[in-house]
Design goal:
Elements: H1 3-6, E1 11-14, H2 16-23, E2 24-26, E3 31-33, H3 38-46, E4 48-49, E5 51-61, E6 81-92, E7 97-109, E8 111-112, E9 115-116, E10 123-132, E11 135-140, E12 147-149, H4 154-163, E13 180-181
Parallel strand pairs: 1-4, 7-11
Antiparallel strand pairs: 1-5, 2-3, 3-13, 5-6, 5-10, 6-7, 8-9, 10-11, 10-12
Keywords: Signal
Length: about 190
């Protein structure tokens, strides 16, 4: 188990399927994504029974390993793709992002039909990773969900507000109005 996992205070009690269900809604010919923000994911993960940690840092990996949908082999993307990655940054501790992180993790990229989760290698992200038996796994979903751009620091500020018991803003709509429809694959 990497030192940075042993020193973390995991956020726990989410059901991965619940988060994925909130983040993605499948329709017959299009995928609708709810605009979840870091506060929404924080609240879901905080209620989880699974141990999660929150990291703000750079993620590097081989982008060529990301799944790509092909009409000639649609079954190829039904199984999640596991990609080794390196993370360098800070782990959320008791009150702040104050625990250095420099280690390996796994990205698990999922697809729903022709839409696949993706990420840019070398980017700075705030992300939520599940800690299973001392191994970190971060999920790449077609609708986002677990990763947020952290270049300007605003995603980390929102998570800190939530973590410290202050206002925890939501981007979720009160109804399905406001969901983003991705282009059809016709």
């Amino acid at each position: 188990m990497p030192v940075w996992w042993r020193n973390s205070k995991p956020i726990s009690r989410t059901v991965l399927a619940g988060l994925v269900g909130l983040a993605c809604a499948s329709q017959a010919q299009a995928l609708s994504c709810l605009p979840m923000g870091p506060g929404d994911v924080y609240r879901i993960v905080a209620k989880s029974e699974d141990p999660f940690v929150i990291v703000e840092g750079r993620v590097t990996f081989d982008e060529a390993l990301l799944p790509k949908y092909s009409q000639s082999a649609p079954e190829a993307t039904k199984t999640p793709t596991r990609i080794p990655a390196q993370v360098t940054g800070l782990l959320l501790g008791e009150q702040y992002f104050d625990q250095p992180v420099d280690g390996e993790m796994t990205l698990e990229a999922h697809c729903l039909g022709p839409w696949c989760g993706s990420l840019k290698s070398g980017g700075r992200y705030l992300f939520f990773a599940r800690n299973t038996e001392g191994k970190a796994t971060a999920y790449l979903e077609p609708c986002g969900g677990f990763f947020f751009d952290a270049e300007d620091g605003s995603a980390g500020d929102i998570v800190l507000q939530c973590h410290q018991g202050r206002a925890c803003p939501s981007k979720l709509p009160d109804d399905m109005e406001g969901a983003v429809d991705l282009p059809r694959s016709d």
